[in-house]
Amino acid sequence: MTILLAVGGWDVEPWLARFRELLPGRTIVTPETAGDRAAVTWAVSWRHPHGALADLPNLAAIFSLGAGVDHLFGDPLLPDAPIVRAIDPDLRDRMSEWVLLHALIHLRQQRMYDWQQDQAIWEDDADQPAAADVRVGVLGLGVLGADAARKLATIGFDVAGWSRTPSDLDGIACFHGADGLDEMLARTDLLVALLPLTPATRGMLNGGLFARLAPDGRLGGPILLNAGRGGLQVEADIVEALDSGVLKAATLDVFEVEPLPQDSPLWRHPRVTISPHNAAISTPQAIAAAIAAQIEAFERGEPLRNLVDRARGY
Ligand code: NDP
Ligand code: OXD
What we know:
The chain is an alpha/beta fold. It is built from nine helices and twelve strands. The strands form two sheets. A seven-stranded parallel beta sheet has the order 8-7-6-9-10-11-12, with helices on both faces. Strand 4, helix 2 and strand 5 form a beta-alpha-beta unit. It is elongated and about 70 Å long.
């Protein structure tokens, strides 16, 4: 009943402490301290070093500390065990906060007022559209996209969303499939990407897609928000679209390469806003508790929840 905690890029100590607090009777190891690999029944991963989960003959499941699981599929030695991803109200609400924050910054032109403050300029003759004048398109209507879409609609935005299979959300215009994407893009002023990274979605935020967004909206040009994955976007196309006026602005939490390289033109582009892949962080407080609860439920005979479909890739 040993738990192997394999984490790359994050401090593992708060996670170890939290799992020990929640599951006091268990042995919890890291790849460095794992002795008897046959004793490991549970693996918990965030960007684990490739191969760290190999040779675990009694593995019951792999838990992802994040909602996204693309970090797992990159490992050619990933064991063929069920994969459980993070679904939790804490994670969901954090993401919706990020989406609302940045949608409102664009609606209320806060970047311009920041600049005016910096220059000590008192000027208020900017066009002020209402939220209802702004058409938002949410790519991905899963746990995170559906919540963000609903909250955007509550504030008054005119919200649509797009998914792979048909969705039905009260007050949201729902589209799906290739034709649905075209239809939604044509009525979108503010595009919010909350898709998983899969072979089907990689690179889809590109120049061809930006050119299909509504050019004539009340924000003065289409705006991109991406907190899904950096692999969804083609950063050279974002810069080109910003410079040619196809996009008015972009707010990005995720990048093709993370941390974003120092020489990326995105850092200093005047119409780009950057956050360091923390739109919705996984906290030991919330996410370890959700995993510990699943382990205990499974051991009482209940099925695992929030399973990933390996064929779909999410
Ligand atoms: P879900 O699996 O719940 O939802 C995914 C949504 O994307 C579904 O609506 C799904 O459609 C849709 N989708 C998937 N593939 C396609 C496709 N090819 N075409 C159209 N729609 C598609 O995921 P979550 O909402 O929980 O999370 C989404 C992503 O957010 C994560 O995978 C992760 O990459 C990212 N994330 C980023 C964080 C950050 O801090 N930046 C934090 C947490 C997550 P359908 O409904 O038909 O299945
Ligand atoms: C996630 C993330 O997938 O934080 O949860 O990116």
